[in-house]
Amino acid sequence: MKLSLYIHADTPLHRLHPLVKVVGVFCFFVAAFTAERPLQSLALGGLIAALWWLSSAMANAWRFRWLLTMVFFMTFLVWSLFFQSREPWLSWGPIHLGEDGVSFAFATACRLTAFFAAGLLFLSTTRVEEFADALRMMGVPAKLGFAMTLAFRLVPVFVDAALSVVQAQRCRGFDFDRGNWFQRVRHYLPVIVPVFIGALRRADLMAMALEARGFQRQGQRTSFRTYGLSGLDFAALLVSLTLMIVWLCWARLTD
Amino acid sequence: MSVPTQFAAYLHHVTFTYEGALSPALRQVDLAIRRGEMVLIMGASHAGKSTLVKLLNRTIPSFQGGTLTGEIWLLGQRCEQHTVADFAGRIGLVAQDFEAQLFSTSVDCEVAFALEQFAVPPAEMRERVHAALQAVGLEGFERRDPATLSGGEKQRLAIAAMLALGPELLVLDEPTTDLDPLGKEEVLAVLARLRKEGRTLVVVEHEALAAEMADRIVFLAEGRVVGDMAARDALRDPEWFRRCAVRPPDLALLAYRAGWSEVPASPELAAAKVEERLARTALGSLHARRGQPRTSRDQILLAADELWFQYDEGGPFVLADVSLEIRAGEFVALLGHNGSGKTTLAKCFNGLLRPLRGQVRLKGTPILGISSVDRAASVGYVFQNPDHQIFAARVWDEVAFGPRNLGLSEEVMHERVREALAAVSLLERADDDPFWLTKGERQRLAVASLLALRPEVLILDEPTTGLDYNEQRQVMELVCRLHRQGMTVIMITHTAWLVAEYAERVVLLHQGRVLFDGATLELFGREDLMSAARFRLPEIVRLGQRCGVPVRSVEEFMAVFAAAPEDKR
Amino acid sequence: MGELIGMWRNTRMVVFTALTASLYAAILIPFKVLPIIPGVTELRPANAIPVVCSFLFGPAAAWGAAIGNVIGDFFGGFGPGDLFGFWGNFLYGFLPYRTWELLTERSPVLRRPTEWLLFAAVVGLASGACALVIGWGLNLLGFVPFRVLGNIVWINNMLASLLLAPFLLAVVYPRAERGRLTYRHVLRGRQVRTGAAAYLGLTMVGCAVVVGMWLGNGLSSGSMTLPWVPEGTVGGTNALAVGWGLVPVLAVVLVGLFLL
């Protein structure tokens, strides 16, 4: 079962230094925050689509098309209703529907979708280890990063186990969809328990295996993955920062 | 008199009791491992093998606490306060559960992990990663995600991760127990290579093949060393294996029974030896044809009509045009290596999976037209890993889960649970917590929890994986008893001797197609099919074929052998 | 609080962290979730995992819940909101065991009605703290209003925990206990505050969560003004009103945590 979003490919985006990618994503987030006009939203969307195409990550865009659509519509709906409009067309209880609300809702929906899209792009081109390395370079403790990679590696193991448990319990006549929703929540017990117990059985063994590989060794450590800053990295850094500044000026000027 | 410091490991009168346990896991153990030697440790489940192995890298007592007495010397050092970290890198430990030993999301990072902890410079690290992957035959896998590897590949990766550190002593705890035959072969091949390199190896193993490459075998029973001898000597007396719940090598057992002084190295050599004594014609005349599948007009219980199946749209067909009939009262083995489609087919049989085309019928009714509850009551499916279904806090409740789902009355349910527990000999454990049962008991519990539904067909998915020989026998005897009582049994397996000794009819799947469907012995005669499916026959069956006697077990061979007249030439 | 840092020296605790995180993320994936308000929010059974893990793995569950939430989003939905999701879930994993062990000596296998009440209170507090941080952060970013997300997270976590966690604990806890796989066994000789300071910390967190949820709802609907909230921030998304308004409350939570 393929869960990871990472797409094996050798594109300029894949080759970038992970820290540069993090900075790039950050710049994009800042830009997206200040996007309020439809034209600006369009520019953001175009940029992301281009990068997606560049990194051969279109498959992931397609895979998450429903998620992205849902995020867009749900955000639009929620903010249309809950934005506290100054000149509402209609007020009913906590809901104040108005023009400024709807236009804000649209901008936020675009913005949030862009965030998600950028996040997807980042994960499509960055291995978990690289992300952990980037976090470490930013000062996050190495062991926290390690726990993250380990958890990431275990997710498919437990997902497979859970799917298998669901089938095994069905074989014993268990009907997950029976009863009201209160009872249905309880139906997860025969699934969660075996998965949980399986994890518990493994805990000690995993800790042992880690120690046998020197996990608790004192002193210096090295890293298998070495990252050099190439010309491409500097270029990407420069472009990201420039674009962000230009964008902020644009957002200011049009205010 | 040798000095303890000369040994890779030296244990003197070691007794260990786990914290909170009532009795010691190891008692008065003496063991000396010489450098460059391969020592095999054999014993039944819970004989203390894992405990012994953990002593060899300080996991016990520094990581898992308890009371330890006696002297331990590791790599020439007397151990008092040493921790795992003190020997990490110099003593490597590989365990049975490969999933619990892999920590990274790519193969090269996995091997490099330990090197990073030891601050090996990146350039050297790359060389060592490469060399370690080469040593286990995983070169070219560097960028793969371990989640996408097969069991055998995962276990070899775990070995590579240890090898990269260049350990002076490598300890492997049941490295092949959870693997399919192909994976077992792969790992044993790696062991053979390490052995050739002259590494010091301690291996806990149930696989008799490993015995043939070891220098020495140590037999454990109830925490004691009951035998410590050269592998050659152990092979001459297969009773040692039997006592320690290891299936003895076929030829060793045969040689023992026949009173030969040497164990022949291959079925070919054994055949020569047999023919030395007996006239070929005499043997041929005794040609015992048994174990034919029923050709009677028994009712067709399950029928698959032209099944096609794929997991992903546009993906490969896991089942391609599979048609099959299972008659009431049959014992059918579904055979094929990983990815051949046998589990998929079995899951179509009880409606867990919906085929793309074609259908499965239960006594003529399309299975998907039957309610899921009725399906469960008719076709019982025991999953490979019993831990994927056990969730209750009491053995009794676990078995009662199924009948409760069927909505049976308290009284009927009670009776069925009793009956099912009695059938698997777990009735007196009814109030116990399943968590603390042994793997073999948990496997039987899983069978019981389906028996309580009183199905007409029982499908077992590799019911003997991860069990020792005695436990395997117990499970198989249970299945045979049920079969004799009229249960139709479909068993997925790739264990050669199980198929040889138990199945009447074999269905061989290969790449989603039925390659063969017929009598077990007939399939064994088809070398072309066997090699296509990468199925390795038990040695005794191969010997039988050489001599022109189709037999399934050493017992059968001996019966034929004893009855045959001596060659009077 | 100190053991949240100290635990990283213990290999088992690191493994517990990874187990919590991966179970949390993994249970989310194979299940159809039950909609509470169709399309807006759903009841996620996986949200019981951090609470169960908290009682088993202690401080490791705090980090594990935090990481697990991020990993869940790694499979779709990764963005700036994860920063708040991280710390919100951190509290959700941290508060249950810490509060429970301060208030009672009993094992978390519930038998009496009083134990159930206590459990509900503990879970309510942890869920509230989680909701406060996430609701505050995401409203500040202008993503989702507090009165939508804050309340949903609170109710969702609380329901999932109350409906599943006690039953899971009943099966899992005694086994972990006997197998010596709880944080109490693994962190032998742990030193935690049990004196007045800890109770003061707990009271501070408790009061701050209750007040915070109330203020958050009021501020996000625009029906409430506070002296420290600058004028002109009310209206629209109320992002700054919620943002400023809850700062003192969150500060109290933080101080309370340091005392715990």
Description:
The complex is a heterotrimer of chains A (255), B (569) and C (260). Chain A has two domains: 12-134 and 228-253, no CATH class; 141-212, no CATH class. Chain A has a two-stranded antiparallel ribbon. Chain A has eleven helices and two strands. By secondary structure, chain A is mainly alpha-helical. In chain A, helix 2 (18-33) packs antiparallel against helix 6 and helix 7 packs antiparallel against helix 8. Chain B is of the alpha/beta class and 569 residues long. Chain B folds into two domains: 4-240, Rossmann fold (3-Layer(aba) Sandwich); 300-511, P-loop containing nucleotide triphosphate hydrolases (Rossmann fold, 3-Layer(aba) Sandwich), CATH 3.40.50.300. In chain B, strands 6-7-8-3-9-10 form a six-stranded mixed beta sheet, with helices on both faces. A six-stranded mixed beta sheet of chain B has the order 16-17-18-13-19-20, sandwiched between helices. Chain B starts with 8 loop residues before the first strand and ends in a 6-residue tail after the last helix. With 260 residues, chain C is an all-alpha fold. Chain C has a single domain (3-193), classed as Arp2/3 complex 21 kDa subunit ARPC3 (Orthogonal Bundle), CATH 1.10.1760. Chain C contains eleven helices and two strands. Chain C is globular, with a radius of gyration of 18 Å. The chains are: A mainly alpha (255), B alpha/beta (569), C mainly alpha (260). The interface between B and C is small, with 8 and 6 residues.
Distance between the termini of chain C: 6 Å
Mean pLDDT of chain C: 87
Structural class of chain A: mainly alpha
The quaternary state of the protein chains shown equals heterotrimer
How are strands sequenced across the largest beta sheet of chain A? 1-2
The SSE order of chain C reads HHEEHHHHHHHHH
Number of helical runs of chain C?
11
What does the radius of gyration of chain C come to? Answer: 18 Å
Judging from the principal axes of the Cα atoms, what is the shape of chain C? globular
The count of β-strands of chain C is 2
Order of strands side by side in the largest beta sheet of chain C? 1-2
Largest sheet of chain C: 2 strands, antiparallel
Give the helix proportion of chain A (percent range). over 70%
Largest interface: A-C, 72 and 69 residues
Can you tell me the residue ranges of chain A where pLDDT is under 50 for at least 5 consecutive residues? none
If you consult CATH, what is the topology of chain C? Arp2/3 complex 21 kDa subunit ARPC3
CATH class of chain C: Mainly Alpha
How many domains of chain A, as an integer? 2
**What about the largest sheet of chain A?**
2 strands, antiparallel
> Strand share of the residues of chain A?
under 5%
The percentage helix of chain C is: 55-70%
